[in-house]
């Protein structure tokens, strides 16, 4: 897709929660070199966004996602192209992340740690919403009060 001469790239990312921490990768390549972000990348031609999110998560961290829930979409303006980014959320189901593909670091970080890191305001805001007590209560309620949430 193209708008005013600038290509639009479909992209995805995965906001994975483990208790009071979010999974982030540090980008090892442009356009976001050195920034911490949710794992993700481009949607390949013919690929569904959820499949792309699972693929990118695995390529960048070695982790697999359980149920993915669409969180929000955003248009990110770039120099060469703009990105239509679909962000999904999921709970950590096990394993430790290992940086791969274009990520040079991967790990789980608290909101306080994230505030001191090189992250975009969008990532910080999303993490704050996901880690809020209200979000935790909603996840707990969805799974049934007698069971512990996989995120908690």
Verbal overview:
There is one protein chain. The protein is an alpha+beta fold. Helices cover 26% and strands 35% of the residues. It has a single domain, classed as Nucleoside Triphosphate Pyrophosphohydrolase (Alpha-Beta Complex). Strands 1, 2, 3, 4, 5, 6, 7 and 8 form an eight-stranded mixed sheet that branches. Residues 137-150 have low confidence and may be disordered.
Summarize the structure.
26% of the residues lie in helices and 35% in strands.
Spell out the blueprint of helices and strands.
Layout lengths: L1 E2 L2 E13 L2 E7 L8 E2 L2 E3 L6 H13 L7 E9 L4 E10 L11 E7 L1 H5 L5 H10 L2 H11 L9
Parallel strand pairs: 2-7
Antiparallel strand pairs: 1-2, 2-3, 2-5, 3-4, 3-8, 6-7
Q: CATH superfamily assignment?
A: Nucleoside Triphosphate Pyrophosphohydrolase
Cα-to-Cα separation, first versus last residue: 40 Å
Oligomeric assembly: single chain
Approximately how much beta-strand content do the residues carry?
25-35%
Query: What Rg, in angstroms, do the CA atoms define?
Result: 15 Å
What is CATH's topology name?
Nucleoside Triphosphate Pyrophosphohydrolase
Largest sheet data: 8 strands, mixed
Low-confidence stretches are 137-150
The helix content, as a percent range, equals: 25-40%
Entry keywords:
single chain, 152 residues, alpha+beta, Nucleoside Triphosphate Pyrophosphohydrolase, 8 strands, globular, disordered C terminus
